Amino acid sequence: MKKLFDSIFKELGYENDTRIIKSNNADYQCDDLFKLAKLYHKSPKEIGDEVVEKINSLDNFDMYFKEVIFSFPGFININVSDKYICNELRKLMEKDILGAKKENKKIVLDYGGPNVAKPLQVGHLRSAVIGQAINNILKFVGNETIADVHLGDFGLQMGQVIYGILNDFENVDDADINLDYLNKTYPKISALCKENEDVKKECLLITKELQEGNAKYRNLWKKICDVSIKDIKEIYNYLYIDFDLWLGESDAYKYFDELFKVLEGNIRDDDGAKIIDVKEETDKIEVPPCIVQKSDGAYLYATSDLGTIYQRNKDYKPDNIIYVTDNRQSMHFMQVFRAAKKSKLYEGVFEHYGFGTVNGSDNKPFKTRTGGTMKLKDLISDVKKEFINIREENKLMDESDVDIIVNAIIKFADLQNDLERNYIFDIKKFSEVNGKTGPYILYTYLRINKLLDKKGGVISDTIYSITDRDLRLKLLEVSGVINESVKQRKPHFIANYLYELCTVANNFYQNNRVIDLEGKQRDDFEVLLGYNNEVIKVLLELLGIKLPKKM
Predict the structure, then answer these.
(1) Against a cut of 0.90, is the pTM above it?
(2) What is the pLDDT of residues 8-51, one digit of tens each?
(3) Going by DSSP bridges, is the β-strand pair 144-148/106-110 parallel, antiparallel, or unpaired?
(4) Which domains does the chain have, with CATH numbers?
(5) CB 3.0-4.6 Å disulfide test: which of 8, 120, 372, 518 passes with 376?
C-alpha cells in the first residue's frame, strides 16, 4: 500500500516517502499532508482532495480499499478491503521471519555484567532480561551476535573479600570459601571500609596488587570466582539467559600494553594520572576527561572497558558493539566511547542502552520487607510462591511448567515497559492470568491451541465477522513491530503487540464457536488461529519466554 501511495503522490507532482500508520478512526491513516502543504505552499485539504480523488478513480480500487476519504484538518483515512486483508495475510504466511526485514551484521552485545563475589540483586535483572531479548531479536533477523556477560571480577569487592579471608583464616590454603561465606563476607567488609579508612586503604592495596599479579591473591581470587560464577550461572540458566563469552574485567588486562600504545597519542599527564580529554564543543553538559590510569598506577573501569573494546575489535571485527546497563552509567560510556573513537581504537558503531530501576509499590528501588537490597534469587522464590498460592489448582502443576510461568511473570513484567523507564514490580498483579501479564499471554496460546486439529492450509477471501477482520488486521502488523524493535533495540514494542494480539484473539475466541463449525469457515478459522499461535510462540521466544505444557 505504501508503494501505491508513493506512486500516486509522485504522479500528482509530490515527492513523498509515505507514512501510513494505525488510526482510531479508520484501519489506517496517512498524515503526510501537513508536511507536503508546507513544502508545496498548498493547504492540506487541497492536496488531500487530489490524492483521494486519484485513489478513488483507480480501476483496481477494490483490490486495496473499501473507503478512502479526506479527514479535516489534514488526514487521509483508509479502510482497506477484505480482499486486500486476505491477500496480504496469505503473503505474510508464506514469508519467513514473520516478514521482518533481514539484516547481516556482526554484533557484540555486552549485558548481564554481574560482580563476582557479590550475590545477584534485583538490580541485575534488567540488564540480563533486556539484553537477552535484544540479542534474540537481532539474531532472529539474520545478524551474527556474540553475547558477553562481562563479569566485574577485578574491582574493589575482590580486594574486600580477600581481606576478609586473610583475617578469617590462619591458613588461607585451607579456607572453606563457599557461597554462604561470600554472601556474608562482602557486605561485612564493605561496611567496615566505610567506617575504617585504614581497612579501606588495605583493601585498595590488595586490589591493586591482585591486578598486578600477586600470586597469593590470584589463587584466592580464582577460588572466589569459581564459587561465585557457579551461582551466577545457575540463576541465569533458570532465567534462560545465555552468553557466548564468560569474560571479565580481568581478561582485558593482558591487552593493556597494546592498548596504551594505541592510546598514547591522546593521553596527557594530569598530576601523575593519565587522562584523555573527551569534551566536545557541542556538549551542553560537562563531560570530564576519561581517566585511564590513576597517579598511584592503579587502573579503572574505563581502562578495562577500553581494553575489552580492543579485544573485541581484534577478535571479532564487529559492525556494532551494544551495551545494556543501568542508565546511571551513561556518562561513563560516553567518555569511554569518545576515548576509543578519538584514539581510533574501534571504527564501528557503539550503542549504549541505559535502563531504569525495578521499583516496589512505594515507587522506590525494590527492597526486602526489612528495607534491605533484595537478592534476585529471593525475588524468583517470592514470585514462585505467589503464583502457586494464587489458585488452588496451581499447587498441582508440574514444577517445570511452574518455572516456565515464573519466567514469563518476571520477564513480561519488565519487557512491556520502555527500557528507559522505571517500573513498579507488583508480584500479585503480574502473577494473575488476567490483565497485561505473562500468564495471560501463555494462557491465550494454550486456550487457542486446544481448538487446532490440523496445521497448514490456505485462508480464503471470505471474512466472516468483525472479530475475524480485527484479528487478521492485527496479524498484519507483526512485521512492522519486529522491524521497529530491531531499529530501536527496544523489546517493549514486541511485548505490547503480543498483549494486543492476545486481546484481539481472545475476543475472536469468545465470539466465534470454532468447535461447532464445519467446512470452509472451520478450515479458515483453523488456519487463522494456527498462524496467530505461530506468531505468539515466535514472539515469546524473542522475549526469552517458553510455553508450558498446560496451566
Answers:
(1) yes
(2) 999 999 999 999 999 999 999 999 999 999 999 999 999 999 99
(3) parallel
(4) 2-80 (3.30.1360.70), 106-151+247-358 (3.40.50.620), 156-238 (no CATH), 376-542 (1.10.730.10)
(5) 120
